[in-house]
Amino acid sequence: MPSADRVAWAQFRVGLVAVVALIILGVLLYLLTGGMLFHERSTLYLYVPDATGIGPGSPVEVDGIPVGKVSSVALSGSADPMRVVRVTFWVPRSMLQTIPAESFAQLSVSSPVGDKYVDITRQGTGIRRPGTEVAYKEQPDLFKSLDLTGLEKQLRDVDALLADIQSGRSALGQFVLGREMYDDLRRRFTEIEQSVRKAANTTTPIGQALYTDRLYRRMLEPVQALDQTLAKIQSGQGMGQLLRDTGTYAELRSTVHDLQQSMATLAASPFFQSDETYREWNRTVSSLIESVQQFNTSPMMTTSQMYDNLNGAARQFLGTLRDFHTNPRKYLKFKIF
Fold it and tell me: For 262-316, how does the pLDDT look when each residue is reduced to its tens digit (9 = 90+)?
């Protein structure tokens, strides 16, 4: 018979294995329930027209965050086509505050095979109570909002574009299938390369500017001239004499002072200070204007009689001069006693 120690050791090992198994089972249940095993749950309801793709165990999310699971999906017995199926789901009681009373739910697709989940969108500030209904909002139908006519037209345009490229009718098709555009681009690149080489040649103006000191000398000449001018000024030549010689500066200052005094004297003269002088000049100018107007309105300027008399006298004098030139003896007669 086994000893008492061995029996006790065997019992201890069996008990230890049972405890470890219970711990593993508890962890497994905790993970399977999403960590909500020991959280108090609250049941909510959702009425939908069709429960395709959703069933017990489907996830429940609030603004994209998983918060619970679907408990059951069953017919509601309602005649309303929008309330045919009742979806029962649970969330932790602590999460009820994240689902205000004005929130709504939709059945969104979670996988390419059509699995769906309850997608709750938070809205409002009302307090949510356990066992209440979450309003349902139907997802927009993709094919109802899709403009099939416009899509078909765009597909036809793309097909026509591809056909043009494949047949070589378009410029892109000619570039892909033919060599004309390729040769033209190659010729243009060759011309650009030749132009660059010509520009780099030292016999051209650009080449001389790049590879010789011609441009540098042309830019250096005015700088040197400016430097020489500044050197002359600094040495006292030209304008430098004015800067270095105080006598020239004093003479120039005296001239400016005299000019200022002359301007002040002129400003203080009666012509600028007295209104009587201005009125006298005004009367003189008005009298001169009146004399000119009287001369313009005189008979000599308004009729042609004076002009005709002067013209006739001039013609008579001209005839006399011609006669004197041709027959001077007629006018030159000398008598001696």
Answer: 877 777 776 666 677 777 777 887 888 887 777 777 766 666 777 777 777 777 8
Residue 319 within any structural domain of the chain: no
Contact between 128 and 99 (Cβ < 8 Å)? yes
Separation between Cα atoms, residue 178 and residue 166, nearest integer Å:
11
**Does residue 94 have a pLDDT over 70?**
yes
Per-residue burial over 312-332, b if 16 or more Cβ lie within 10 Å, else e, is: eeeeeeeeeeeeeeeeeeeee
**Same domain (yes/no): 34, 47:** no
Of 5-9, 114-118, 280-284, the poorest mean pLDDT is in 5-9
Task: State in Å, rounded, how far the first CA of the chain is from the last one.
Answer: 214
Q: What is d(CA 72, CA 90) in angstroms, rounded to the nearest whole number?
A: 10
Positions of E strands within 41-194: 41-48, 59-62, 65-75, 85-92, 104-109, 116-121, 135-136
Same domain, 33 and 79: no
135, part of any domain: yes
Residues near 78 by Cβ (< 8 Å), separated by ≥ 6? 47, 84
Token duo for residue 156: 């036809």
Reading the block at residue 326, the tokens are 């041709």
Query: What is the percent of the chain where pLDDT is above 90?
Result: 17
Total domains present in the chain: 2
In the structure, how many helices (H) and strands (E) does the chain have?
A: 13, 7
DSSP state of 123: -
List the domain range (segments joined by +) for residue 125: 40-140
Cα 33 → chain centroid: 55
309 inside domain: no
Task: For residues 46 and 133, state if they share a domain.
Answer: yes
Q: pTM here?
A: 0.37
Amino acid identity of residue 153, one-letter, is K
Q: What is the distance between the alpha carbons of residues 236 and 245, in angstroms, rounded to a whole number?
A: 8
Using CA atoms, how far apart are residues 134 and 124, in angstroms rounded to an integer?
Answer: 13
DSSP per residue, 237-261 = STHHHHHH-HHHHHHHHHHHHHHHH
